[in-house]
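Record type: monomer structure entry
Structure origin: computed from sequence
Chain ID: A
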Amino acid sequence: MEHWEYLKPGGLRFVWADEVFRPGTDTFLLSAFPRLRAGMRVCDLGCGTGLLGLILLQREAGITVTGVEIQAEAVRLGERAVLENGLERRLCFRVEDLRTTGLDAGSFDLVVCNPPYYPLGAGELAEDLGRRAARAEVQCTLEDVLRAAARLLRWGGSFCVVHKPERLTDLLCAARGAALEPKRLRFVASLAENGPSLLLLECRRGGKPGLTVEAPLILHNPDGSPSPEVNRIYFRQEEPS
């Protein structure tokens, strides 16, 4: 079954299907992490139905986004959302393997990715390909993603990713191995007293060594309600001026 929703009242609409790439908190968190500015050329690797690109455009209408996704069914949904929102000049898709994409090297200012979190053998795989590929590295590895990002970024461009804390060492090592220098790290926790459940990392192509660890992003108040920052990320309240 298909579901159409608004990102915010009067905002962009996105579509998702029960069997293809359900929207998740990690996508919204990643969308708020890059430092966007008008004119940026953005590539979303493994974009699924294009939700991340739509959220980025909701945050900064002056960017352009190219999504790369190997599953044609997901791209078909994303293309319908493009038409629904009149974003033909702002958001496009390529049905390609990110490891062999024909996009020009050095053609993007920002590359983003919400990759599969688990290596093969780390747990039971989902039966359908879409969920299996979204969760586990069955179609590409973490190293594949970072190499693709490094090739697509211009010198000085940024790569932003959401991942699991237990893969932090793998992520940092793979980033440096792809000539992407880790520059900014932020952990995500459900409550202030809890350990992190996710992390957000920004790397820079050609960046100098030096990693800034930012204050953690806390998802919930002590009473279980969403934190003010989460409400802003989900467009439930305006950003502070």
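Annotation 1: The chain has seven helices and eleven strands.
Annotation 2: The first strand starts at residue 2 and ends at 6.
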